[in-house]
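Weekly puzzle thread! Below is a chain. First person to post its structure in token form gets bragging rights.
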Amino acid sequence: MRAPNAGYTRGLVVPKVSKLIRSATTNDAAQICDIYNHYILETPTTFEEQPVSVDEMVQRIEDTMRIFPWLVWEEELRLMGYCYASKWKSRAAYRFAVESSVYLHPLAVGKGIGSQLFDALLSKLRQQEVHTVIGGVALPNPASIALLEKFGFEKVAQFKQVGNKFNQWIDVGYWQVFL
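Winning reply:
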């Protein structure tokens, strides 16, 4: 039997959770560092080994956003993830190819935030003259592979033992999609 007034909310204020995807700003650098430095210190996901300072992250955001999008997922004024595109290579003929990156706060993993961020990033890249998007993945990483393949990326390469972090050799796979 249902309790009287179960689920009844008239007269009650039910707070709405504020969630949005927006362009990053340099004011986001500290929270982006919090997310990224976790991956540097705790996982082989990135091959960086020293935490990134807020000043360095400000510079990275500014450099990236001169050409490509850098998006964040904000929830109640807290960043839960971010993604961006960067040049694949520096030579001129590579200008139509980008590499994508997505990082989530550990509390945001498995909630669909990465998919929504990635979808927004690809949408913005389609509006630019980007022809192909590449995703590099330190292996094994089934969650990142699943995200890329969800958006039509196909595996095109795997380099064996190209990184060494936490005293272990790490392979890197590359996935690609044409826009």
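Puzzle host: Confirmed. Bonus trivia for everyone else. The first strand starts at residue 19 and ends at 23.
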